[in-house]
Specification:
- This protein is mostly helical and 104 residues long.
- The chain contains 1 helix and no strands.
- The longest helix has 102 residues.
- It is rod-shaped and about 145 Å long.
- The N and C termini lie far apart (147 Å).
């Protein structure tokens, strides 16, 4: 009777090992299948990300160029204003000197 129990336990262990091996094999197969399905999705996401990044780079470049242009315009306007003020002051100084010379 003990021998029958030992044989039965051995059979159960063998069946358990087969089940474990089948489960491992199935898990590997599922993992490989999942990787095959995930790779195209990952590539698609990477392409979409790169496309969005390119859009942002172009937008940043355009906005930077526009800001630089506005700064240049503001600089030129300020420069022209200062030059005009200096001319007016120079004209005032010349007029003052001419008037003083005439007074002599």
């Amino acid at each position: 009777m003990d021998l029958d129990i030992i044989k039965e336990i051995s059979k159960i262990e063998e069946e358990a090992e087969k089940i474990v091996e089948e489960a491992k094999s199935r898990a590997k197969s599922l993992a490989a299948g999942a990787e095959d399905k995930l790779t195209p999705l990952r590539l698609k996401c990477e392409k979409e990300f790169e496309a969005e990044a390119q859009k942002l780079r172009r937008r940043f470049k355009e906005e930077t160029e526009q800001a630089e242009s506005r700064l240049k315009e503001a600089f030129e306007d300020t420069r022209a204003f200062i030059l005009q003020r200096e001319r007016e002051r120079f004209d005032d100084v010349v007029s003052f000197l001419i008037n003083r010379i005439r007074e002599f």
